[in-house]
Design brief:
Number of helices of chain A: 16
Largest sheet of chain B: 4 strands, antiparallel
CATH architecture of the largest domain in chain B: 3-layer Sandwich
Strand order of the largest sheet of chain A: 1-2
Radius of gyration of chain B: 26 Å
Structural class of chain A: mainly alpha
Strand order of the largest sheet of chain B: 2-3-5-4
Largest sheet of chain A: 2 strands, antiparallel
CATH class of the largest domain in chain B: Mainly Beta
Largest interface: A-B, 19 and 18 residues
CATH superfamily of the largest domain in chain A: Cytochrome Bc1 Complex, Chain C
Oligomer: heterodimer
Helix content of chain A: 55-70%
Number of strands of chain B: 11
CATH topology of the largest domain in chain B: Rieske Iron-sulfur Protein
CATH architecture of the largest domain in chain A: Up-down Bundle
Shape of chain A: globular
Distance between the termini of chain A: 55 Å
Order of helices and strands of chain A: HHEHHHHHHHHEHHHHHH
Distance between the termini of chain B: 74 Å
Structural class of chain B: alpha+beta
Order of helices and strands of chain B: HHEEEEEEEEEEEH
CATH topology of the largest domain in chain A: Cytochrome Bc1 Complex, Chain C
Helix content of chain B: 25-40%
CATH superfamily of the largest domain in chain B: Rieske [2Fe-2S] iron-sulphur domain
Amino acid sequence: MAEFKQADSLYEWFDQRLGIDKFVKVMMTEYWIPKNINFLWAMGVLLTVMFTLLVVSGIFLLMYYKPDINMAFDSVNYTIMQEVGYGWLFRHIHAVGASVVFLVIYIHMFTGIYYGSYKKGREMIWISGMLLFVLFSAEGFSGYMLPWGQMSYWAAYVITEIFGGIPLIGGDLVVWIRGNFYVSDSTLTRFFMLHVLLVPLAIIGAIVLHFYALRFPHVNNEAGEFFDFDQEAEKYLAGDKKNSKVVPFWPVFLSKDFFVLGVFLVFFFYLVFFHYDFAMDPVNFDKADGLKTPAHIYPEWYFLWSYEVLRGFFFEIAGISGKSLGLIAFAVAQGVFFVLPWLDRSPMVKPANQRPYFKYWFWFLMVDLIVLTVYGKLPPTGANAWVGFASSMTFLMLFIALPFITRAEAKKVGGK
Amino acid sequence: MMDESRRGFVGKAFGAFAAVGGVASLIAMKKTWDPLPSVMSAGFTTVDVSALEANKLEIAVWRGKPIFILKYTEDMKPTDGRSVKVGDHYYSVMIGLCTHLGCIPAYRCDEKDFKCACHGGEFTLAGVQKFGPPPRPLDLPPFKIDGTTLVLGEEGPEYKAMMAKAGGA
């Protein structure tokens, strides 16, 4: 056993046993962040805070929620909303938080794409981040089912039905996922389990991986510049803070982050208190009824772009049915961002505006995603269906074209 | 050297044993997610159609879906490949979800047809689309005729013949 000296203070007593000094250095005061960054680099901390808010509000909702098809709707809309003290607050934080967390995820993701933060050693940061996106999507989808309103029911119905398109095993797979031939009590209870335990556990694991993946390649900066972090850290510790290119995570980086966080939370709680209705679809205030389909089914805003890719192919091409084509396109759309580090063939790590060809690709993608999102909400009839088809095709073509565009770019800039 | 290979063997044996246990537990996990026996047995619905009133729509529920059962009067003409003869009467047996976007059409006993309120689709009494956006006739549930009883969820010869006809057309 290691030898222990008599501790002079309570702090020392803990430090001897838990290595607090060392831990704080590694995690906070000597974890180095580049200086040359802007407010977009605050999104990671915002997401951590949002996830915490969702967990805490979720814990309080869990005290009164009942995962049973006969009780779920009333336990949310009557018990939590009207009887439980401040139950409405936790529900609105949870619902608005689920929506806003996706807004921040998208900003975080597109910041990464814009600044090329997925390249040259940062691939694992990108992949673990995309894994988090998929897990958050699963979390959002499973949670949306729980209030057991009409939109809960039919979203669950339509999304589980998607798996029916998989050849050979599709039909059985849908029944297996639902635990019944239709969305029913067994479906609700298993998605409840996923929402409150399995998926959050996986999310926490993926967050740890995501943070850990940052340790070796380090955080990117506004110019995409590569430098020796150890050397810059030495400069900082020697007192030459002005010429050092890095700052410690705590207290320097986080103090600025807290400012951005403060502004963000004002916006967030403004939504929670005064505009929560945008996260509360009126259709979902009718209790689920498996025998009555709402006239128009659509997902929450953050799933609209991929929902539109799914619907975009509404006619047969080369003997493959529209349904299958939509399913293939949907599967591609879910997976294609994962391989972005390898589709981008240019070694250049620079913000998009300094990349001669990539900048067009980036803004084209942004416009296309907005078009997909807008049309994903509209009924797919007449001209809407064709806009959906064109924008879905554009989405796929953009990713097919990316290796060629970036290879041409690499040639133009001479491999820089 | 002898010792090395012994360790290697023990390691592999341990790994293989653990792998078998892992696979076995995966099977248990898969089975836990399977529909329960009570759910599977509830996957069949039986309806005695002899007592039904002609030209009045009966809606049975099978696997959470509405099933239209319509008994024909003498002057209602059967449609080849869509109408089923049970005893002396013809019937329509179909899934009551509009093939456009899944709403439940209503039966109009005066016009003797179905009208979907959502987007205005219309179907004949045998469920063939005749107006509006529905892309195909109402789907047929698998059924078997057992005397005057209809067993929904089982594929009888009449159902197979109808599906063969629909597939060939």
